[in-house]
């Protein structure tokens, strides 16, 4: 009788644990803190498809634009730490935002890093009828008319805003920086001739350059990109200080269990290593993460360094 009672008690305690479904048991929401069409949105959709296959569940993108990505990241920080809400972040949303937005409701400690997806190459592109095709001609115009040139970006604190800041400082010019709710609307206005140029990543602006819808001015890279051979690298164009390599990574709300972070990290590694994503990222002139860059520990160490880097850049 005692044995049967003990066995029943053990079964009672074991039942709730056994009833817990394996993660993930339902659709995962991936918050993209920008409007559709920009670099973060493009990369997030690619990685969501591949990670979903690895996890055996759908990952659905939710675009939450505004405040240079701060609104979307705020929503992600408030989400339940159960692995069913994650977010894509970048240099702007997870590092520079603390120096560009005085009303941020989250800190680096509000998130548990999952891992890096890819690194991106900044590009400055101009409207087709801008009076100048080369960096030298652009600089001559900008210096002749201080403050007249206007450059669009995805909002103060976004990675595109940091590209603008880095470019303007390296070029030693005065320019008006125009905020949009995302990179895609900014690029649309450049193609329509409503603003002079855009600060973006090759990931989202290269197709417009190749189609002749905008003029590629310069890339922030050690050498010209194979995808954009006609656009000079910063050093050869006399702008060696224009260095603003970006990155995109996945984050979960603080408190997300280590086992879930590990499961998501495993799916991320499989996704990025796969031939489909490798080719798509190469086509977009993005560099896939590799080695230790995938690890949560790498991102946990990188973010504070980036925060300090942009404190120095934005306090000049």
Helices and strands in order, then pairings?
Layout: H1 2-19, E1 28-32, H2 39-55, E2 59-63, H3 70-78, E3 85-90, H4 91-100, E4 111-120, E5 122-127, H5 135-144, E6 150-153, H6 159-171, E7 176-179, H7 183-191, E8 197-201, H8 202-210, E9 214-219, E10 246-253, H9 258-273, H10 275-283, E11 287-288, H11 296-314
Parallel strand pairs: 1-2, 1-3, 6-7, 6-8
Antiparallel strand pairs: 3-10, 4-10, 4-11, 5-8, 5-9
Helix pairs in contact: 2-9, 2-10, 4-6, 4-11
In a few lines, what is going on in this structure?
The protein is an alpha/beta fold and 316 residues long. It has 11 helices and 11 strands.
Q: Mind telling me the CATH class of the largest domain?
A: Alpha Beta
What's the overall geometry? globular
Averaged pLDDT: 91
Estimated helix fraction: 40-55%
Biggest pleated-sheet summary: 6 strands, mixed
N-to-C span? 79 Å
DSSP strand (E) fraction? Answer: 15-25%
| CATH A-level architecture of the largest domain | 3-Layer(aba) Sandwich
| Name given to the CATH homologous superfamily of the largest domain | Bordetella uptake gene, domain 1
Question: How do the strands of the widest beta sheet line up side by side?
Answer: 2-1-3-10-4-11
Please name the CATH topology of the largest domain: D-Maltodextrin-Binding Protein, domain 2
